[in-house]
TrEMBL record:
Annotated keywords: Kinase, Membrane, Transferase, Transmembrane, Transmembrane helix
InterPro entries: Bact_2-comp_sensor_kinase (IPR050640), HATPase_C_sf (IPR036890), Sig_transdc_His_kin_internal (IPR010559)
Species assigned in the record: uncultured Cytophagales bacterium
GO cellular component terms, semicolon-separated: membrane
Keyword set includes Cytoplasm: no
Listed name of the protein: Two-component system sensor histidine kinase
Amino acid sequence: MKPQVLPNDRLARLVGVPVLSLSMALLLKFGDPEFGKVLIMITLNCIIIWEGCRQLFVLLRRRFPRYNQTSRRLLYQGAAILVFTLVVAIFMNRVCHTFWPDDPTPSSVFDDFVKAIIPTVCVTLIYESVYFFGEWKNNVKKTESLARENVQSQLDALRNQLDPHFLFNSLNTLASLIDFENDEAQQYLERLSDVYRYVLVSRDKNTVTLEEEIAFLDAYVYLNKVRFRDNLQVVKEISPAAYRQQVAPLSLQMLVENAIKHNVVSKERPLQIRIVQEADRYVSVANNVQEKTIFEKSTKVGLQNITNRYRLLSDRQVEVSRGHDVFKVRIPLLQPALS
């Protein structure tokens, strides 16, 4: 969900500039014989400051869009606005001296700077207040929507299954009953336990590290390779640095699960799945297309759920492409939240 850089402020600008200009003129020069000249200069000053500050807001909100960058944005924004206001004060001072060289009481640059601070503060307060409350409302909606998506994901993923805690404990008990010489059975149970442990740990999280997700995926792929042997071929191409970035939990597993569920996996037609890091922005899951004529019953946990979750987590969206021979899904790699 992209933050709204600026609201629709056309009406505020059309009304705000004349109201602010007239108010300042009445406050500073009411009863002055040259009130008309003063009003014109103050109006010009307000227009320049309003539009200039507005452009600075747009630039810095795009440069620092995230909530955890607010302090940095306000610091740069404050410095930029003060410099801009000083430049406007110098410019307006030169204009006044050029058009009214015989003014008996010419103002100094400092006086014009102090006067220019008034519209600058007003404009900043207006835009920052609207922006703050708008982002606060968006964050509340995003949190509620993400919570609903996670709850729905949990319900769908675990529907018609026993409680994961019960299954996890039962697997540990079963492992103790298997002959220690049966290494394959012990290893299978260990990987199955890893799968359920990850589901338990990650189900309340919005994101996990790519390293955690890949470790879980390795356990999940192992379980399927016991079933399909070399008919299932999974290749990973991910740099060590990418493991510190974040993904939505169970997202890669869901894509691999869907590939296995909807495609033929046989000795004659092996299923090939490639998990590839694309620069530092995406990780893709691609498989060769060899659709089953009869699909397994869907658990409704799949691509739409992943797409909805990433719509709430990132400005970059899940990308799906389907060719004649290859089905590919790209999911964004998310930067770790700054503390």
